[in-house]
Amino acid sequence: MKTAKIFTRAVIGATLCCVTTFLPVNGQAEAVSTLDASPARIAFNGSGDLLVTDYIFGQVLTVAPDTLEIIGEMNVNGRPLGIAWADDLIYVGNTTTGQVEVYNGAGQEQFILGYGDHPIKTPQDIAISDHNVYVIDGSEKIVKIFARDGAYVGAIPESGRDRNMLANPTAIALDDINEQIFVSDYGDLGGDRAIAPRIQVFGFDGVLLYSITSGAGGKYRFTMPQGLTLNENQQLFMIDSLTAQIHIFDATNGNLLSKVKGSGIDSGVFAMKMPLDLVIDSATNDVFVTNNMMASIQVFAGAGGI
To answer: What is the CATH number of domain 6-24+34-300?
Structure first.
């Protein structure tokens, strides 16, 4: 199991509740800061800064990746969850309005996805390909597909909810090169037939290609698969919200390659609680994780380039 060097850097939000954590000083965790935030989903914008949704305070935060200082705030009329960026536009999944709201860099709404006959009840994660926008609807338990301009294209599964294909989808990532869609799925332990937690892999045509399934034990064991991201080596990174481990798979066949411990260091000072999402900086291979219940962003230095 791989253990990476880990930092927690300054993220300051509104004043409501507080968590004490550590900041790096000359590479050492020495300074202390009080954080207030509920970081959920995370993505990079075109300038290389981080976009982080804060669903309690109703904001999208722009965060500098080197210092984790907040350098911008955009208020959302509701609770934002999913986040993505493309063509100088910010796509925000608003769980209050049941839509994906699309903003320009100045925070002005341009158009929406999910209206009329195709609402998105719980837009909890978003991924964007060259042509389409893919949205996890956590209530309807499907992936809804829209064109970049907001027109409805279709869904996965095509016929609607099917627990055999998607039981409780949570997060999504795309591989444009190989035209594959990766979806985290909590599974379903109720009903007549239990479905274990898994990652479902679809083609762009919506056909299920294969599953990465949690086993009863051993190296493939995971429990609450959440955020997904890919590095430039065709490796798929998944954060397990319950165990706070990052699982790293070969994206071409689903084989497990490695894991990164959630605590990062032996003392456990930086242990994660309910991490929800992750992204990789392609220039540094740093992995950024939204550590939700610790109100922080964790940085695993260099862990994205195994």
So the answer is: 2.120.10.30
